[in-house]
Write a structure and sequence with these properties.
By secondary structure, this protein is of the alpha+beta class. The chain has 4 domains: 1-51, no CATH class; 59-173; 178-389, Aminoglycoside phosphotransferase (APH), C-terminal lobe (Aminoglycoside 3'-phosphotransferase, Chain: A, domain 2); 398-574, P-loop containing nucleotide triphosphate hydrolases (Rossmann fold, 3-Layer(aba) Sandwich), CATH 3.40.50. Strand 5 (87-91) and strand 6 form a beta hairpin.
Length: 581
């Protein structure tokens, strides 16, 4: 018996056990129950099942065929393997073969040969809608004397004593140089291409299938179910991958939006906006060749993920481009799509679906923890938070993190920037960039000029103008500086109020013993800040008392738990007038 340990939340305080049931008829059925063992109680958290029959290709056979070009009915230039959690892809230079693993989860079932063939056929049929030249056929994989062979066509005859072992999706291999993320990284993904993509997807949505059955998936009941499933599945990651206050806020805003916009969702159904869409429309599934754009890999295995509002499809690429730090391309794509589709309510519902798409991407990332990329996951959650903020036409906020040297301002500001997606402006960075000083160098000369009143005035003026520029583009901003003088606070406060942007001053403070210890520790590390114990002792008396009562939080930063500090800041920020935050 094989014993496996599965811990999707990455928690060390939870014990998990895996049980296997072997059937007597030689067909193996493995059922995995994930148990939460805590305080002598057993509570089932997840129920996954992996079922298989005698007819499936395993990893050893895949590795074997990678060493034998004779198993392919065409010229093989090279053999490469790419593996996902549900499939194997074999690249040969001209043709790609996709083999589904014999797995079953709550949302897909490839557990038998019959089911794998069915979903491969579905994948072929559905993807030919947008990439007919790429998706060629579903071909049998034959076996004889433990040697695998890919048949040329779906109806190719078997040789003597051969049996069908499994099936593969046969696809044309597209050169990686046409891969959209690669083109974006190299600066070759231009607005002109996004305009073409908008036309392709808008026309695809117009001709995509719809029916009474498909329309059911646009009902509030289903949409609410999808969201509640997201919240339930991400709850174990609160405090680890997503901040508690942000989790509660997104949940509250989504439930409010669904409650207040029933008529909008009903209208989307009446106007036939619920269709058999792509379901996974992002840059990772787009190839752009000189002659044609190919959109591949739609979701074939679950109708609930594909039968959806056309705006949800559009929102995926729009969100993805923003995640990739190209909001200009995202805005251009949406603008062109709206014009082509003539979807009058698109902009009313798009933030809702962008919020959903970002949240799901983060959720899927959570399932890969602790091995997953936690920074990427937090960035997706921060995007979801920003979209949730916009659901009630809130203006982007400005957080001013200020206080004495060594009070942990930067640590808090960087963390808040990560989890909220706010743009971070650090006075230390701006100062050195403006004066042409390398970030991690600490000059000993011209200190009076570098930190003199005239230079400091320029820094705060620059911070204010940069902050307003980003706020006007819809991006929240965090300012990280001492703001020791009331005149500097007054100027930044006035600029925010005149422009109609909400703000919150957060003064960090800590006992002097803690500040001195931090500064001594900082001296041993590679730091941007020039602040030292000597600088602190010299300037601590210069800090003028903050007289604000509203839009102000005084925060004790003595402890090391930045998550708790962030919660206090966000709770205060989100408690401000909903119309302005």
């Amino acid at each position: 018996m094989i014993i496996a340990v599965k811990n999707p939340a990455g928690r060390k305080d939870i014990a998990f056990e895996t049980f296997f049931v072997l059937m007597a008829d030689l067909r193996s059925v493995r059922i995995t129950y994930t148990l939460h063992v805590s305080q002598k109680k057993c509570k089932p958290l997840v129920k996954d099942a992996w079922m298989w029959d005698n007819f499936f290709v395993n990893k050893k056979e895949i590795e074997k065929i990678l060493k034998d070009k004779r198993g392919f009915p065409h010229r093989v230039r090279y053999l490469k393997l790419k593996e996902t959690y549900i499939s194997w892809l074999i690249f040969t230079g001209d043709i790609v073969y996709k083999i589904k693993k014999p797995v079953r989860f709550s949302y897909l079932d490839f557990s038998t040969l019959k089911k794998r063939k069915f979903f491969l056929t579905q994948e072929l049929k559905l993807n030919q809608r947008l990439a007919r030249e790429v998706y060629l056929d579903v071909v049998p994989i034959a076996v004889k004397n433990n040697r695998l062979r890919f048949l040329e066509k779906s109806d190719s005859p078997l040789l003597k004593d051969e049996k069908i072992k499994d099936y593969a999706l046969k696809m044309k291999e597209i050169p990686q140089r046409y891969y959209a993320p690669s083109l974006l990284e190299r600066g070759y993904l231009k607005k002109e291409v996004l305009g073409k993509l908008a036309k392709i997807i808008a026309d695809f949505h117009k001709r995509a299938k719809t029916s009474k059955e498909i329309e059911k998936y646009g009902r509030l009941k289903i949409i609410r179910k999808n969201w509640e499933e997201n919240f339930k599945q991400t709850k174990p990651f609160v405090g680890k991958a997503i901040n508690k206050t942000i989790f509660v806020f997104i949940k509250k805003e989504i439930r409010r939006f669904l409650k207040e916009n029933r008529t909008l969702f009903e209208k989307r159904i009446r106007e036939k906006k619920i269709r058999d869409c792509h379901g996974d429309f992002h840059t990772g599934n787009i190839f752009i060749s000189p002659k044609k754009i190919f959109i591949i890999d739609c979701l074939e295995f679950n109708k609930r993920f594909r039968y959806q509002d056309t705006a949800a499809d559009t929102a995926f690429l729009a969100m993805d481009l923003e995640y990739l730090k190209r909001p200009d391309l995202s805005d251009y794509f949406v603008k062109k799509y709206a014009a082509r589709s003539r979807d009058k309510d698109l902009f009313k519902i798009l933030p809702f679906y962008k919020c959903y798409r970002a949240y799901v991407r983060a959720k899927v990332g959570c399932f890969s923890l602790p091995k997953g990329d936690i920074l990427s996951i937090k960035r997706y959650f921060s995007l979801s938070f920003r979209y949730a903020l916009s659901l009630k036409n809130r203006s982007p906020f400005m957080l001013i993190i200020c206080g004495q040297i060594g009070t942990g301002k930067t640590h808090l500001a960087e963390y808040l920037s990560l989890i909220t997606g706010a743009y971070l402006l650090r006075s230390d960075v701006l100062r050195k960039k403006m004066l042409g000083i390398p970030l991690f160098s600490h000059p000993k000369k011209n200190i009076k000029k570098i930190y003199g009143e005239r230079t400091t005035e320029r820094i705060y003026k620059k911070m204010g103008s940069e902050a307003l520029k980003r706020l006007k583009r819809g991006r929240p901003v965090i300012l990280d500086a001492t703001f020791s003088k009331e005149k500097h606070r007054k100027k930044i406060r006035g600029a925010a109020e005149r422009s109609g942007f909400p703000y919150l001053f957060v003064e960090c403070y800590a006992p002097e013993k803690k500040i001195l210890a931090r500064l001594k520790q900082r001296a041993k590390k590679k730091e941007i800040s020039d602040a030292t114990v000597e600088v602190y002792l010299k300037r601590k008396q210069e800090f003028e008392k903050i007289k604000l009562k509203k839009r102000f939080l005084k925060l004790n930063t003595q402890g090391n738990n930045v998550e708790q500090k962030a919660n206090r800041v966000l709770e205060k920020l989100l408690s401000l007038d909903a119309k302005s935050i």
